[in-house]
Amino acid sequence: MRTPSFWRALWYLVLLAALTLVTVLYTLTWARGTAFKHHGWSLGDGWNTPLSHEDKTIVVGVADAELPAGMHPIEHLMNVATKQFEKMQKNQIRSLEQAAAQYRKLRGRHPPLAFDAWYEYAASHNAVVNERFWDQIYHDLAPFWSLDPTTLRKQAHVFSPKISIRKGKIEAKSYSNNGKMAMWIDMLTTLANDPKVDLPDMDIPLNINAEPAMLVPWEAIDTALSMSRKIMPEAKDTTGKFTSLDDIEDLMKQFDWKPEWLGPRLTHPASHLGPRPLWSLVRPACPPGSTARLGKVYNDIWDSEGGTREEHSAAALLLHDLPDGTLKGYVKNWTNTVDICEEPNLQGLHSAFVAPVEMGVATKLFPLFGDTKFAVGNEILLPGAADWNASALSTEFTALAWEKREDKLFWRGPATAGRDPKRYWQRFQSERLVSMMNATHVEIAEASIHTGNESTVGVGYAKNFRLLPANEYHLKTQTGGRLAEWVHSWADTALSDLGCEEKDKACDLVQEYFSAPPPSPSSKSSTAKFAVSIDSPSNPLITHLRQTRATLHASIYRNWFDTRLVPWLHFIPMDNTFVDLYGIIEYFIGSGSGNEPHVGHHSLKRAPNDDAAQHIAAASKSWAEKALRREDMLIYVYRLLLEYARVVDAKRDRLGWVGDLG
Predict the structure, then answer these.
(1) Across 44-58, 267-281, 479-493, 562-576, least confident range
(2) How many domains does the chain have?
């Protein structure tokens, strides 16, 4: 006869086994999330690869210990970037057969139908062809392979606004007066009108808002990816024709679907809870184990009574130390820098999260194209209007020789677009940038290093930036108490528009800290050696890359061209708090101390690392003229549309180009 103690012991064993299983499963899930969040361009990897659930390898950047003795971190980062670009060039594809083989190796499928026509189009436009240039397409489309293609077609057809393609013709029945729509129609019409291009039938749903519109929870995307199958049938089992949309209206019978858009306020019955911060939708889209998922939403920032806690003020959220994951404070992994899941304080330091102008976010996956997305977003990226227009702009004024330019950083842009600027402007990026390059603001920040308390130490006049109190960037000017004077010698930045009406009380507040000078002639900007590109619609990165200037760049967004650019060669990557700005500038132009070249107009002596800045400026212009042209945008879109047409086709597993297989 079994005793009760036996059953008790057995029960304990079962319970222990269950707890062990749960722990193992959670650890594996957390580890996967950690692996995904770290994948990207790094010193060890060499590619600015988009973040993806499919990436299983933990990519570790170069540790601080690997910095050669006596070498400045920026010099080391530039050396590594040059090697990575050389590797990129060696992987350039020279033939259709090579392109198809590389495709199958990297994508695990046959190329899409019309792949030969696509390659001929790229080659005829003298494009640099590297299979990695289209990684973003496969990152964007990957989760759709597990969803029913017929449903995807129906969703795309019923959505508005959209652009339709029927028998090679471009159609747009709504929102034709929208600037983005007009640009995309122009782009697609330019592509479709090429006699060698034959686009399949499709509907292209579009996000015409200025801000991202899709944030699907991480677990939902992970499930979709785990259910996706990569099939490469034998050549004889493939089919060579896309399914037309002639019967789409019949398919739409009894199909009733509308996306659910989550706006800036919680709706009934939870309206008493107040606003819905965008960050509350960002967190679930981040991987388990990420800083954002482990942290909280700072709901008090949006308290209707202004009850924001001191620890969530703009000044309190600013860095007190070097940014994590950097090389002595300088960006070594651009993908991680753009990854908002590792920067939870950005929810209170960037207008996209603090005060989005047009917040409407879907949390369930369906096809939606757009020109802006977060790293954890789920839109399908297209080139944007700013890129399309910038590629056509004349750059004749950039012919000025580098030696005749000034050691200046030039920036003009409007006040950050965001709701309720009177309340939130201290949290906006454009205002922070201008404050950091205003000598008066910097002088007050310098003084507060010695007189401020823990919450105000190093904080500037507008309370929207902070000098690191321990001078972790080892700025000679900060050590000597000359930082404000030094900044004044090279900074030429201002808000071109304060973004408020003169009679508006908000204007009085903003004008206490900023002024909008008269418009500067283009010749003034063309004489500066340095430019800044931040998240502002008036500052597209492509514009700067084409103008023979060394461009500092900070962003929270993904772009269609990310895998084409190498940070520290084509642009100077910067943390989204701009805390590294002074260190970057001091490296390139010096501190203006007695043992360094004079920082000023047409100096006879060159700044200490002027050659390095000139190298970046020349490399960016040369590469932009080869890989960021309008033709390159069309080649990207052509490839994207062929892939999209396949993923929404009921025959998708058998659709593939096999012309090279005999």
Answers:
(1) 44-58
(2) 1
Q: What is the DSSP track for 388-408? A: HHHTTS--GGGGS-GGGSEEE
| pTM confidence score | 0.89
Supply the DSSP symbol for 49. P
Encode pLDDT of 25-62 as tens digits.
444 444 444 433 433 333 434 444 444 454 433 233 33
Report the length, in residues, of the chain.
Answer: 662
Distance CA 122, CA 129 (A): 7
* Amino acid making up residue 253: K
CB neighbours of 10 closer than 8 A, spacing ≥ 6?
none
Q: What is the pLDDT of residue 524?
A: 57
Q: Which two tokens stand for residue 62?
A: 């170069």
412 within a domain of the structure (yes/no): yes
- In whole numbers, what is the pLDDT of the chain averaged over residues? 86
For residue 442, what are the domain limits? 393-499+508-592+606-633
Is the alpha carbon torsion for 431, 433, 438, 443 positive or negative? Answer: positive
User: What DSSP string describes 184-243?
Assistant: HHHHHHHHHTSTT--PPPEEEEB--SSS--B---HHHHHHHHHH-------GGG-B--PP
Q: Which two structure tokens, joined as six digits, stand for 577?
A: 């708090």
Strands of the sheet containing 162-166, edge to edge, are 169-171, 162-166, 202-205
Inform me whether the pLDDT recorded for 223 exceeds 70: yes
Would you state the structure tokens that stand for residue 306, as one six-digit string? 């202004």
Contacting residues for 307 by C-beta, under 8 A, at least 6 apart = 300
pLDDT more than 90, % of the chain: 68
Does 578 map to a domain? yes
* Residue keyed to tokens 């388990």: 288
Residue 587 maps to a domain: yes
CATH of the domain at 540: 3.40.50
Three-class DSSP category at 647: helix
DSSP characters over 83-131: HHHHHHHHT---SHHHHHHHHHHHHSSPPPTTHHHHHHHHHHTT----G
Q: Which tokens belong to 645?
A: 């047409």
Residue 458 falls inside a structural domain: yes
Beta-carbon contacts of 491 under 8 Å, excluding residues fewer than 6 positions away, are: 408, 409, 437, 438, 439
pLDDT tens for residues 376-414? 999 999 999 888 987 666 444 456 889 999 999 999 988
For the stretch 483-521, pLDDT in tens is 999 999 999 998 877 666 655 666 666 767 777 676 666
pLDDT score recorded for residue 57: 30
Reported as type and span, the H/E element at residue 279 is helix 279-285
Please report, for residues 253, 339, 478, the alpha-carbon distance to residue 297 in angstroms, rounded to integers and kept in the order given: 42, 17, 35
Provide the CB-side half-sphere exposure for 275 (13 A, CA): 20
Between the CA of residue 518 and those of 171, 494, 525, 537, 592, what are the distances in Å? Answer: 43, 10, 14, 20, 29
Asked if pLDDT for residue 355 goes beyond 50, the answer is yes
